[in-house]
Specification:
Elements lengths: L17 H8 L22 H10 L9 E7 L6 E8 L17 H6 L7 H8 L3 H13 L3 E4 L4 E4 L7 E10 L3 H11 L5 E7 H7 L3 H7 L2 E5 L5 E5 L9 H17 L5 H4 L2
Parallel strand pairs: 5-6, 6-7
Antiparallel strand pairs: 1-2, 2-5, 3-4, 7-8
């Protein structure tokens, strides 16, 4: 689904389909819709943390939505400054993912349903049999697998389910848009959309190279300390590039849900 920073007077041209309009309606809504002024574009942020706070503050939290926001989302593809994740219905019944080592979640998804031996899993995961036993035990502790001692085999009882169905990653930068676009491109390993959001002063230069962002499907926006913003191009929506990274980030998001209950109040009533 497309994450769209909507200007004060949004216009939807004839090239936009009805389906796209429906998709946009399911996304996090902007808390306010200010228009950028020439004066505000000259006011820089003092820190990237301040920039991230303003970006987050642009979006209203609603109990009718299943979106949660995560600062500094960790992944093998880098640490996104900010990420939005749309939780699946019944996500509470899937939060056992946080009990699994994140990098082993995709291996669990890949396991066959028929019986297998430790050596089979070791070969699949390219680890030693001793390491494979430890991982299989963690699967069993969460109720995903069971060991049949009489046959010396393991059985996968069920597949894991993701806690989120859409992930939007945001790279925030005060300057250096080239570095930002490189990092944002890496987030497409696991994210459906990736954005670069710059200090509005740096945005003026970056937008001259908007073709670089469009070529990669990366969204580009500029924000002032007052929350005034401008969009040069919208991020493309796509399937995550690496399924194993998508599953690993799902485990990280599950950990966030398990350890940040106070932040989940707007979502808990869903």
């Amino acid at each position: 689904m497309l994450l769209t920073f909507r200007p004060h007077k949004p216009t939807i041209g004839p090239s936009f389909s009805r389906e796209l309009a429906v998709q946009q309606a399911e996304l996090p809504c902007l808390r306010n819709k200010p228009t950028a002024s020439a004066h505000s574009l000259l006011l820089p942020f003092e820190t990237e943390a301040a920039l991230v706070r303003v970006i987050r503050g642009l979006f209203a939290q609603s109990a009718s939505e299943r979106w949660t926001w995560i600062s500094e989302l960790v992944s093998p593809s880098g640490i996104a400054d900010l990420a939005a994740a749309r939780l699946v219905p019944g996500w509470r019944n899937k939060d056992e993912l946080h009990r699994l080592p994140p990098r082993w979640l995709y291996a669990l998804k890949s396991l066959p349903l028929e019986p297998f031996r430790v050596e089979d899993f070791a070969n699949l995961a390219n680890v030693t049999p001793s390491a494979a036993r430890g991982v299989l035990k963690s699967y069993a502790d969460c109720g995903f697998c069971v060991y049949r001692a009489d046959q010396g085999t393991w059985i996968k009882l069920r597949d894991p389910s993701p806690v989120t169905e859409r992930i939007i990653a945001i790279e925030a930068k005060l300057s250096d848009w080239r570095r930002a676009i490189y990092q944002a491109s890496r987030y497409l390993d696991y994210a459906n959309q990736s954005w670069v959001v710059l200090d509005s002063k740096a945005f003026a230069n970056a937008r001259l190279h908007v073709d670089e962002f469009q070529h990669r499907g990366i969204g580009l926006a500029g924000v002032s300390p007052k929350g005034e913003f401008e969009v040069a191009c919208t991020a493309a929506f796509r399937t995550p590039r690496l399924p194993q990274r998508f599953w690993q980030v799902n485990a990280e998001i599950s950990r966030h849900l398990a350890t940040s209950r106070l932040q989940m109040a707007p979502v808990e009533s869903v």
